[in-house]
């Protein structure tokens, strides 16, 4: 598995952050003026951005995380939903399943009604894949979980079309069957930051599973594939001792920039 480069990390992290505002000037980030397609949810809100440039062989698909009350309510749908009707041999979080299968409101005149988010996205990507472009998928929080499912779906229907999957602070996605049958573990980077509680959700050990290579950004270092129970233990310890850590002189020295030079 190739290491994730710093410029790749920064690129995907910035795009995930910019997925939340309604307005995103994609040309500032090297994409063509006509190199953006928007996938909307059932309420007409932007859910996914597809970005590309003629000069690059990579199409970037950016999934927005939970951003409304209804999204957060869907996060509570923690039962499993079978994905076999989608051609996937496993079950995933019911809320994620609903987000992919909900009707997508049209973004362009040629978009038809009655099409799911997943089908709208696939229809958008197929012409680009046929041009020889490969797809990188990224997302924050539940958007990262969606990126994993969609990437696996596309890879099964258009083999070797997926370049990589990079997620930030994502919850677990699906069942043990999902862990066993996910086809892109060697191309998936799951990035967790410090003691991000969302990365431990849903709180059902051995029922929900993560996939891909874990990159845990903790205490100024990158830890790879740290077991969940060990990461949780260290995170819990951090919560307990954090108030005392602010007493260290290193904290006072770090904050020297608050003072103007006199």
How would you sum up this structure, described in words?
The protein is an alpha/beta fold and 262 residues long. The chain has one domain: Alpha/Beta hydrolase fold, catalytic domain (Rossmann fold, 3-Layer(aba) Sandwich). The protein is built from eight helices and ten strands. The strands form two sheets. An eight-stranded mixed sheet has the order 1-2-3-6-7-8-9-10, with helices on both faces. A two-stranded antiparallel sheet has the order 4-5. Helix 5 links the parallel strand 6 and strand 7. It holds the Pfam family Lipase_3. This is Lipase.
Descriptive labels:
262 residues, 20% strand, two-stranded antiparallel sheet, Rossmann fold, eight-stranded mixed beta sheet, alpha/beta
Walk me through the topology.
Layout: H1 6-18, E1 36-40, E2 46-51, E3 58-63, H2 69-74, E4 80-82, E5 91-93, H3 94-101, H4 117-130, E6 134-140, H5 142-157, E7 162-168, H6 176-181, E8 188-193, E9 213-218, E10 221-224, H7 228-245, H8 249-254
Parallel strand pairs: 3-6, 6-7, 7-8, 8-9
Antiparallel strand pairs: 1-2, 2-3, 4-5, 9-10
């Amino acid at each position: 598995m190739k290491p994730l480069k710093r410029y790749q990390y920064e690129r995907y992290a910035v795009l995930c952050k910019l997925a939340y505002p309604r307005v995103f000037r994609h040309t500032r980030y090297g994409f063509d003026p006509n190199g953006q397609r928007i996938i909307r949810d059932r309420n007409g809100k932007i859910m996914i951005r597809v970005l590309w440039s003629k000069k690059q062989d990579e199409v970037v698909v950016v999934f927005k995380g939970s951003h409304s009350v209804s999204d957060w309510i869907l996060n509570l749908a923690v039962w499993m939903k079978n994905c076999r009707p989608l051609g996937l041999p496993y079950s995933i979080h019911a809320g994620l399943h609903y987000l992919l299968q909900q009707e997508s409101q049209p973004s362009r005149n040629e978009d038809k009604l009655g099409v799911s988010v997943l089908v709208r996205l696939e229809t958008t990507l197929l012409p680009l894949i046929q041009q020889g472009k490969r797809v990188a998928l990224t997302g924050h929080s539940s958007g990262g979980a969606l990126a994993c499912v969609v990437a696996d779906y596309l890879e099964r229907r258009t083999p070797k079309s997926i370049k990589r999957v990079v997620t930030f602070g994502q919850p677990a996605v699906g069942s043990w069957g999902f862990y066993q049958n996910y086809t892109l573990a060697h191309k998936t980077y799951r990035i967790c930051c410090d003691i991000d509680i969302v990365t431990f959700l849903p709180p059902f050990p051995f029922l929900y599973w993560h996939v891909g290579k874990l990159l845990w950004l903790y205490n100024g270092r990158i830890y790879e594939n740290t077991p969940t129970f060990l990461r949780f233990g260290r995170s819990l310890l951090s919560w307990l001792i954090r108030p005392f850590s602010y007493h260290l002189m290193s904290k006072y020295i770090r904050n020297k920039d608050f003072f103007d030079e006199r």
